[in-house]
Predict the 3D structure of the following.
Amino acid sequence: MKLAIDRMIAMLLLVIGGCAQGSETEALGGRADTVLERMYEAGDFSGAVILSRDGVIVYEGAFGAADRTRPFSLDTPADGASLAKTVTAALIWRLIDEGRIALDDPVQAHVAEFPYADVTIEQLLSHTSGAPDYNPFQPLPDTDAATGNVALQAFMRRISLRPLRQPGATFSYCNACYDTLALLTERVAGASYEDQIGRLLGGIGASAAFLRPARFADWPQSRTLGFRSSLPGAEELDVFDNEAIYGGSNIYFTARDLHAWASAWVDGHVHTEAVLKDAFAPARVGGDLSAVNLSSWYCTPDRARCYYTGHHQAFFNLVYWDSSRRISVVFVSNNTMAPPLQPWLMRSLVAIAEGRGAEPPPNVPPEEMEVDAEALAGRYRLPGIGDAQISIDGAGPSIQVGQGPRYQLYQVGYGVLYAPGTDAYLSFEPGENGSPPALIWTSVFAVAEGRRTA
């Protein structure tokens, strides 16, 4: 009799637990829908989102249009931009794991066309090679012909016969470095980059991902367009024709592909234990630790929570994963999102996946405006982050936290500066009655505000 009662109690607890879990998932989905619906209606989001906990999708949704005729869906491929760097880095680490290359190998030992003899594989991975780069926000130099990874080596040589900075000493975000790494994997593996990513991504369930054709005319299916808004009739802000480069960009992913990629990291299916520790070591800039690691992820110090973003023209994407709580957050988007909304959306979706509420949305200036960085240069004390020094030199504005590396700052509109290498968005509040201005630092992992002290 007691055994039967115990079984009834156990079944009742399972039912109650299932109801509670279902209720929590429903609430989570409602919060995500509220955030995304409001953004879509305001013209700020079109794309697809997937949130996962413990290997189970707890929210998925798609909004807006993929082009002039098709709605966006969970299976719509979109330009992944710099998310390709996480894939390229994974290919490099697999070759290291196989003993076929080493971090301190000179790049020229594997890619004879690479113009700089003293630059190593590690320096390409860590954005410290000093190699010249193309402008990621503009078409490549020759728009009448496809520019590929081999031609890119000659392009760098034409810009400078030597690295622009001492290799290993300074950070400078470098797309051409990852394009070179992709070329290196081809030479060492004896297989095309396209075949390599097909095996890697297909092996973890991201089988719809593909390397884009250089020419729009060769697209194998309807091409997802980039728009300035999610509202109907929005002006296009699309990617460029004749791009045959790859490694730093140009892999197309669906939301389902990115969910599979995040899940593979949560479950530890990308690398062997033998290489994982080294692959997730922070990159070094001189003697300082970089904010981005040697696998092209931004991670917390315990390496349990990591993310990376991709942003090119109107396309903006996120892969976030937490191996300790088994949570992932991914989205692909094809509309221009005002810079103040970018970190807010990422932070809000992570908070929702963790069972918390979204943060209040930021104020977005009604018009694009640049930051007067020269007037705002100085030292700011940011609680939880440290003393941040904004400086101006011949290369433009930069920021340094404590004694760490210096990162270039770029104007991205709407009163925001962006720091590649830290993924920090910087905005400013003017002081009142003669008080100094305040710097607001926003990233996925931290928000801090501090007044200028010097």
